[in-house]
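Why this split exists: single-chain examples teach little about how molecules sit against one another. For that reason, every record in the complexes split bundles all components of an assembly together and asks for one structure covering all of them. Below is a record exactly as it appears in the raw files.
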Amino acid sequence: MMKKLKTFRGGLHPSEHKEQTAHLAIEDCPLPEELVIPLSQHIGAPAEACVAKGERVAKGQLIGRARGFVSVPVHASTSGEVLAVEARPHPSGKLLPAVVLRPDGEDAWGEAPASVADYRELGAEELCERIRAAGVVGLGGAAFPTHVKLSPPPEKPIHTLLINGVECEPYLTADHRLMLEETARLLAGIDILRRALGARRVCIGIEANKPDAIARLEEACRGTDVEVATLAVKYPQGAEKQLISALVGREVPSGGLPMDLGVVVQNVGTAAAVADAVLAGKPLIERVTTLTGSALARPGNLRVRIGTPLRHLVAWRGGLTGELAKILCGGPMMGAAQLSLDVPVVRGTSGVLLLREGDVELRRESACIRCGRCVRACPSFLMPTTIAAYARLERFEAAEQFRAMDCIECGCCTYICPAAIPLVQAVRHAKLAILARRRKL
Amino acid sequence: MEQKLILSPAPHLHGEQSTEQIMRAVIYALLPACAVSIYFFGLPALRVLVLCTLGCVLAEIGCQKLMRRPAAWRDGSAALTGVLLALNLPPASPWWLALLGAAVAIVVGKQVYGGLGHNPFNPALVARVVLLISFPVQMTTWSAPTPLGAGLDLVTTATPLGEAKNAVMLSGRLPEALQNSSWDYFIGNMGGCLGEVSALALLLGAAYLFWKRILTWHIPLSYLGSVVVIAGIFWLVDPSRYPSPLFHLLTGGLMLGVFFMATDMVTSPVTPRGMLVFGVGCGLLTVLIRLFGGYPEGVSFAILLMNAATPLIDRFTRPRAFGEAPARVSGRQGAP
C-alpha cells in the first residue's frame, strides 16, 4: 500500500548526493593547531570578548559575553592559550572579530560542568536560562538563538513543538546520523524543549529518504505521545514555514512568526545541544557536520569543535583529490561559497562541501522564456520571474506588490530556470532595497 | 589552488533542462506531424517545411547580425518557429509564400520586440495571419491528401470546416457526410494545412512533451474542455446547423493550436490560474469565430487575441502568497 506522505505545495527534487556519507558513522575530529572562534555565530548582536591575548582558558570557559536579549555567549571549545582577539575570515565572507586559541592538548574543563539531578524539577524559565547560558542556537543553519524562540510573549502560548529532522539540502547527512546514533540524547532534548514551552503536541518530521532514522525514532517513541511523521522527499521540506504547513496544515501569516500559530520548530541538532546544556551543563562547543564533495578524499560525518578551520578538516580527511573549484559552508541550495579554507566551522555550519569544476557548472544567462517553472516551484507561491524583472528595472514598489518580502530565498527558482537567470539573487536585491526604503521612511 | 575558487551565490545546483533543450524537445515532438504531412502531401510538404525552417533561421541570424546582438539562433527557437509556421501553411504554398512568412515571423513577430522571450504574439501565428489576410487565395488553396503520392492532387478540395461553413451559409444545414468521417479526421486524411491534418500525430508529440514535463495540463485541458462544452451547447441546441464537439476537436488547426501554439511559453501566462483563463478564452473565441465569424477557422485569431491579453491575465492571477490570505489548510497530501 502506498502511504500518503505529508508535504507542502511547490518545491522541487534536486538530486540528493547523500549516498557518499549517509552510511558513515559520526567520527570525532581531532583538535587542530589553532581554533578560530568568531564572536558572531548567531543571528543578533555579536558577543563581546571577555578574554585577552595571552590568557589561559579552560574548556567551556566563557570567552564572549552575550550583548542583549537576541544574542548568546561564546565559549572556549578546548583548553589553551588565547593567541589573539582579532578580525579573521568568517563563513559570511567578511572579516569578523574572533578569539584565536592555541589548544594545549589537555582538553580540560575548568570547573566540572554542573549536571542536574532531574531537569523535570526545573521551571521553564530556569530551563530557558540554562539553554541561553550554554550558547545554544538553531543548528539547522540559521543559528537563531534558541532561548528567544523558547520565550514567546504570554499572549502567544505554544501548543505544538515540531522537531526538524528533514535535512532536505542535498549532500548533507549530519542530522540523519545524529538521529540514528544519538537517539536518546535527542529525545531528552526534545522533552526539555517541550517542558520549556509547555507544548502539548510534539512531532518529529523526517523525509522519507531516511527510513532507518524513521524506524529508529518510531521505536524509541513507542508508548510516548511524540509523533514521528514521514514527509515527502522534496526541497525545501525543511524550511520552517513549509514544515509547519506540512505537519500542522496551516500557513504562518505573511510577515508573521510560527508562534502566531502556537508552533515552535527546532532542529534535531539543536535538541541534542539542549540536552547537553541542561543535563550535563555543557556549552555548545562542538557540532556534527557533514564534510563531503567530489574534491575530498574521504567524506564523512564529523563531530567538530567550533572554530576548527576547514583546512584542518580537509587535511584530516586525506586532503583534496582533483582541482577544488568551490568551497561551500551549508548545503548547495542555500550555503555560501567561501574565499578560502581558512574559515572556521561555526555553530551554523550544517555541512562543508568541496566541489570540483564538473559539479559547479557556470551557465550563461539567456532571456526569460516565461515557462512558468519558477512560479510552479516557488514554495511561497510567488512569481519570481516577475519580481526579478521589476528588481532589475529598480521598480521596487512593484516588486513589493508582487510580494517580494514573502520570499524565503530557498533558491528553487534559480535552480529550475532553463534560462539560468539568477532569480533568487534578483529577488534578494529587491528585498534589501525595500527594507532600506522602509528604514528611511 | 585557491586563486581559482568560484564565488557565485546560492543555489549552487541547477536543474537539467535548458532553453535549448526545451526548444529541441518541442521540435522533436512535431516530427510525427511533419512525417504525416509528408506522407499525405508528398514532396511539396517537405519543401514548405525546409523553406520555412531555413528561412526563419536565416532571418534570425540576419537580424542578430544587423542589430549587433549575440548570435543566439542556436537556441533553436527560430527553427521551432519555422516548423510551426510550415505546419500552418497549405501544402501547395508557393516558395515565396513560405519565405515571406518566415521573414514576417522572425522580423515582425519576434526580433523587433527584442528577440526570444520579448514578443507578445506567437511569431508563427503572426506570419500565418499576415499571409492569410494578404494572400487569401494561396492561403486557402487546399489539396486532397494523396497517401505516398508523388505530387499534389491539383484538384483542390475544401477543408471540412470550410465545407461546413459554406453549407450552413447556403442551405442553413450541415452536410451529412461531414459528421461521419471522424476516423479520417483523426489520422489526418482530409484537406488542410500541413499540421492541421493528423490529430493522432500531434497527440503523440504532445504525449512526449508531457512526459518531458515541458507541457503542463493547464492550457491544453482548459482549451479543449471549453471547446467541447461551448461547441456542445450549440450542438445540443441545433445539431443540424452546428457540428458536434468531436468534429470541432478533430478538424482545422485545433490540435496543433491547443498543444503547440497556445502553449507557447513566451506568449501565454506564467501563473497556473492564468493558464486556465487563457485556455478557456482561446476555446471560447475559437468556437465563436468558427460558428459566427467570417473565416471558417478561428484558432489562430483566438490564440493571438488571448496573447494580447496575457500580460493582463498574469497581473490579475498573481497567486495568493504563502500566508497572505487568512490562513487556510494548505498541507497537501502527495504520494511518495
